[in-house]
UniProtKB/TrEMBL annotation:
Catalytic activity, EC: 2.7.8.5
Membrane protein topology class: Multi-pass membrane protein
Functional pathway: Phospholipid metabolism; phosphatidylglycerol biosynthesis; phosphatidylglycerol from CDP-diacylglycerol: step 1/2; Lipid metabolism
Protein name, as recorded: CDP-diacylglycerol--glycerol-3-phosphate 3-phosphatidyltransferase
Organism: Radiobacillus deserti
Amino acid sequence: MNIPNRITLSRIFMIPIFIIILSVPFDWGTIDIGNEVLPVADFVAAFIFIIASTTDWIDGYYARKHNLVTNLGKFLDPLADKLLVSAALILLVEMGQASAWIVIIIISREFAVTGLRQIAAGEGTILAAGQMGKLKTWIQIIAISVLLLHNFPFSYTTIPFGTIALYAALVITVVSGVDYFVKNWHVMRDSK
């Protein structure tokens, strides 16, 4: 297994740690930020989420630079993104930081794209993520990071940046999903 795929696996292994820190009621105190009081556990979880999300860029960059792009990487990388983002969004609903209907639409799109990839894989084709899908992932990561940090650094203002970013993520998620299906419609059309 090459280095980019190992980096991707490390992202997958960070997900349970992230989930535990947000799910178990650790009482590590609080941090005052702007007009908010941020539990230290939320800060630690956000830090882990940001580090895990950064590995998405690192593994892709390293794989392209050293010509180490593999079919396993094309499969694992979007899977790791979906697992991390889905876990974070579900936990944000539980925390009251995100609306369930937004999360349902975002995760539904991810299931639909994964289904299309499985159909393609059954036909011997690997569908890599497109540029719009990558943009979608980064907008989701920004929205989730700000929401996990209780709107920091925008907590000093009245701008609900995390919520605005989440709506932007919703829009680009839907648009990129439609774009992905349009570009790869031949996979469904030609499927046996």
